[in-house]
Amino acid sequence: MDFDALFSGLDRHTLDGITRGSIYALVALGYTMVYGVMKLINFAHSEVFMVGTWTVLGVYTVLGVSAGAGLAAVIGATLLALIAAMLASAGTALAVERIAYRPLRKKGAPPLIFLITGIGCSMVLVETFGQVLRFFFGPPFGRVTVNIPSVLQTRDLFTIPGVDLTITNTRVIIIVGAIVMMLALDTFVNKSRLGRGVRAVAQDPDTASLMGVNQNRVIMLVFVLGGAMAGVAALLYTIQYDITKFDIGFIIGLKAFTAAVLGGIGNLRGALVGGLLLGIAEVYASTIWSSEWANVTAFVVLVVVLMFRPTGLLGESLGKARA
Amino acid sequence: MIRSSKTWQVAAMAAAAGLVLSACGTTDTDGGGDASGEDCNFKIGVMGALSGANASIVLPSVDGAELALKQWENDECEVTMEKFDTEGDPAKATPVATQIAGDETFIGVMGGAFSGETRATKSIYADAGVTMVSQSATATDLTQEDQVDVFHRLVPYDDYQGAAIANYLTDELGASKVFVVDNSEAYGEPLADRVEETLGNAMTQRDKTEVGQTDFAPTISKMESAQPDAVFYGGYIAEAAPLLKQMRDAGIDAPFVGGDGLYGADFGNAVGPAGEGAVVMCPCAPIAEDSTFAADFEEEFGAAPGAYAAEGYDAMSVFLAALDDGARTREEMEEFVDGYTGEGLSKEIAFDENGDVPKENVSYWAYKNEGGTLVPEVEVKP
Amino acid sequence: MSQILDTYRGLKLRDRLAEAPNWVRKIGMLLVIAFAFYLPFLNILPFAYIRTDLSARGSDWASVLFLIVVYMIAAVGLNVVIGFAGLLDLGYVGFYALGAYSVALFGSPSSPVVEALQSRLGLGEEWAVPFAMCIPIAIAMSLVAGVILGAPTLRLRGDYLAIVTLGFGEIIRITARNLDNVTNGATGISGVPVPPGPEIGGRPFFNTIDAERWYWFALTILILIIFLAFRLEHSRVGRAWLAIREDEDAAAIMGVAAFKFKLWAFAIGASVGGLAGLLFGSKQQYVEPNAFMVQLSFLFVAMVVIGGSGNIYGALLGAFLLTYLPERFREFQEWRPFAFGVALVLVMILRPQGLVPSRRRAREFEDRKTEAQEAAVDV
Amino acid sequence: MSDQTIQNDPETGSDAPLTVAPDTSDHEALSIEVGPEGETLLEIDHVTLRFGGVVALNDVHFSIKRGEILGLIGPNGAGKTTCFNVMTGVYTPTAGEVRFNGQVISGTKPHKINQLGIARTFQNIRLFPEMSALENVMVGCDARHKTSVLGALFRAYRVRPSEDDLPDNPLKRSLAKVFGISRHTLEERSGRVRSMELLKFVGIADRAHELSRNLPYGYQRRLEIARALATQPELLCLDEPAAGFNPAEKEDLMDLIRRIRDLGHTVLVIEHDMKLVLGVTDRIVVLEFGQKIAEGTPEAVARNPKVIAAYLGEPDDAA
Fold this sequence. Notes:
By secondary structure, chain B is of the alpha/beta class. Chain B has helices at about 1-30, 55-70, 90-100, 115-130, 140-145, 160-170, 190-200, 215-225, 235-250, 265-270, 295-300, 310-325, 330-340; strands at about 40-50, 80-85, 105-110, 130-135, 150-155, 180, 205-210, 230-235, 255-260, 280, 340-345, 350, 365-370, 375-380. Chains in contact: A-B, A-C, B-C, C-D.
């Protein structure tokens, strides 16, 4: 146990935690939105994220950009990758909804069944990249770790005076990007007409449909939005970590789901709070002990929070708590 | 009446299903086929994680074995390689082992790929006298405790590797402050323990990480305050790649050294530019210049030979050499492998009484990642 | 597929069985049990095609049967939690791991715990807790863990409970991996004891080769557990669970101590899971943390749900299929996980109520289906 | 284990008109043992209940005497059901307390309160829909049973059976004589018998094996009463038992309530229908806006100008 290490670099560790947590939070949005509207844990969401990382790789490969390209090329390629990842992830999420969930909704199946088809879809997607695509196209698909060229190279931007904390460009992009996307989503759900539909269905599906809200469309919208956010997370992830792998989604998904519950599943701002808190808790724990205990700490924090606030930190649902 | 006709329908369905199944069954059992040689018609089992998160560590060695079998020329014998996916899980490995043990046409087994499944199955193979040659199980206790005759391995165990790596760190790199990281798993942790032991005071700090982890910020900040002059990582490529990238991003330029879990032609591809100059320690001599192994492998499987691919090739070659030599029973196979000596791709192969490659046969080499390929740098003594 | 199902339904086997005289049912049951015990030796065509060891890439039939039965035990236990009490437990593997680890920690002469006891109490090198004593220890440890996990968390709503239990399963595994001086860490513990028995042919009765003995041993325990599970289902306890599932508040006002019964469901499920883990660890004679990944928890839940949540026979069938099919079709090698995923989705979409749902669940489902359709018409 | 299988008719759900067979059989077995009549059984002692700023009950004070039928009336939103919820442990009062048999029960958990002897029905019927009528009542009976979870599992707690409980099969009979019969079996059996008796008592025994959700509305109301009675409550609280009933059915219900009292239960009725309340109760408490505005005999309450005003102000409620 090394509390000195924690306190001597508290600002630094907190920043690390926020960086880590931002990505959790973005992925958590997908869980939380789907849960808010359908009361359903979308287990395939982690793979929606994974598809996004592969899409980024695909875009970079097709464009042929690599480290050291000009500023314009870097920005262009990154934006293109962002859009492609959002589209691919949203498309995957939508496909999962159409194939695995909609038929069940028509039959009014109990929630447990959705859980199993979600797990099934997750396996199918993982194996698609680990086995099926490799079989047809060979590498880079397969079970090995694949490098994604760091188009955007890490540079020190500025140093915060007083605390001697150096801020790099990737950090800024990740944290700012995540927060901007969440604000955008929050505004969309709260202000737009479509967003009102989402909140209405989340609050009371029956009344909403009586009021003329098309429930199917709302559900599709929720999957698309959640998927797109996972796509953003995928791009930020590749900027930070430079890799992808067929099963990369599993752990991120698990953490994001935990974050969503921690903040109060069904609550958009809860996802942000939960994600950041989880990221920070993990980094602190890894500093005090080592990373092997980070997951245990994350779950212990979750249990403790839920014992005092049984519906998560911000509690309530997408409908009730003004999103 | 209606009822009885339904009964018939079910019976008919069952019969149809039975036929379908039987069709599957017969085609499978015929898999061995009639061979040209009457009494040299054998199977060699390969047991390891072919699917799941850890498959990337096993698949190259399986491909290597397949390549060896493909390149083998022998008119007399018909040998097939049967792959068994264990997902690295001992629970799935034991039924496989019992089956292989019970099927006399299996004359040897390459594996287990991981120490856990090997530990769970070696007594089964020992009971049936099936020779095992493992390409990648490095746990010390596999040959040092509860020895079984049939177990052999082509990789030296952690104790030796650890010592060699530590020597490289102190002697070659002249490091006096080494930061040791492991992946908390059965491969990385004991290896890092040995490195730590041998380093003694030359180790400044030890940190543990998780398999599947991608964010190493806490480890990086520990490194920043420890100011190491070298970093050792005991683990696999999937985690080494992001760790390296984040180290370099944070401006830590200390040399990075990994164990044989990172050794494979795909290392360079996975770590990207951040891995330039990273060193991988492997108990394997450089593959001879004139060897076409890498090219053949790439042609066959579309990718550069990954971790333990050469060991896989060697393991299969040992079995095939036994068949060339006229071994036709499990006893003969065991006898041959015990006494085998020969030049392998990875090292000079021979097995001591415990099933390990003798110390003096193993040469430890440091390979440097230059432009995406691992280039042999220097030989190290443990 | 659907034709077979229709034909099967047309037979109304269940109704006929229910109407059959008592002695017919009893004899039928005995025949089924006798057949189950005979299974490892089943070699008559065409039935022998269910064996997994026919193809070159097959795996040992008796060992597979043993694994199936162990997973069946776990599924029956989890069915108490999910099917009877309606609590979603995604960390069941934690109890399974605890069972396996308790027999290893206390029964293996090479475990750090036993070594500590040896030196503390001055016992010999070979001393360890006997296997028979390990059974109550394993059950007690997992039961206590179930209560410790359940007591603070059972008040949580369904999905919150799911993530907390999932976390619990991970905590158990990671702790087992990290506590090197208690559990040997990632290396695991070997030398796990086996049940005592006479030596046959120079080998202990329960050894690594003769898997059918293990299978019979596990099957006996499975039958005992099924018997007890039926007793629970058809008693005030089963009624209380059903009442809680249907309307917890009303049940409480009718005098059902909801929390107590839920905790009991958790504890019973946990101890059965521990027992399954004990069998697994003992047969394996080796326990390592990696054998208890989260995915196994999902697999257990899938077994219960695919078979038909709430029905013991359903859980048995689910456990059988999900363990058996991947072993039977080893030919497909690396394609099996993909096929498994596709099959999970397909089966659930085609038969959301499970393959053999309990009558009650089937009815509930029919009602929900009509409601969903009516709602769809409304829109 | 098979004797529990529900044999149930698949074609159900028809809303057959409620025809209650006149119940002439003697239900001696259903009567419960109670203390002396006329003593205070339950006392609502100056109970106040607030939800945030809303005052649901304001200093409500009244008591119920053993053996009486007390009516609790008032316009919609007067706090009648809230009063029930406080009594049965759903809510804990903000101030004041509830005493039952002299024991403070406010703040106690609902299932504990039931064990002390209070049972209730619900305004909007809350049966266990996927259980048969008989099973619903058996859940109520279980409240008085002593079998523990382990007892149900291992059935090791043996009881020396009385002559009536012995099985007919000679082998089983002699076994039962030697080893006794498990308490679980005996309780299961007696619970079943008692439940059937209760179903007969409320007049719906003909559809005992049907799923409760498929029962016609009137049957469901009666089933709720049977289920509540199964817990052998000293005090039975009925929350608008006549809602949706036609006059003939209301007559039957009044008769049923009286017969319940004759078994020894004290009855508290919430009801809108003045005719029913005036016809069946011994005493009436009137609530309005969470406050007690009147209490007395039916005749006195009916003449009370405050009550008349309250009801005239809410003409809808006269239904």
